[in-house]
Write a structure and sequence with these properties.
Elements (H helix, E strand, L loop, with lengths): L34 E4 L2 E6 L2 E3 L9 E12 L2 E3 L3 E12 L3 E4 L4 E7 L6 E3 L8 E5 L2
Parallel strand pairs: 1-4, 2-4, 3-5, 4-6, 6-7, 6-8, 7-9, 8-10
Amino acid sequence: MGRAGTGPAKLDEIPEKPEAYPDPTMFGPLPAYGLWVRHAADLAIRDLTLRAPAGEQRPALVVDDARDITITGLRGSPASSWWSNVQTSTIDAGPTRVSGSRTRNLTIHRKDGEAGAAVDSDVPGGAVTFLPSR
């Protein structure tokens, strides 16, 4: 396991480097401790377990500028996620943050008593639907 840390406060602080060879250190501190999905489409992940080092403050999963993403069974310590500028996607997982003015048609499934989602003020009204867990 890596060291615990914090990531950027805003996802647009992470530079675009399309011409560079992918390297995990090329972007500086990443926004997620587990999985960072950026500029993706048509992705489904099921039954993913992630474990963070003690003191970790970043979410397990960050999805940024993506569409048609389905995440079910995200578990971890913590099993939180951040979805920004995501369209036509579904998550069935723990505490969630939603941001981005381009967010549309995002469905969040919740278990009874599970921590709610934080929806930033830049998210358009009606862009997020909350449903009971499947």
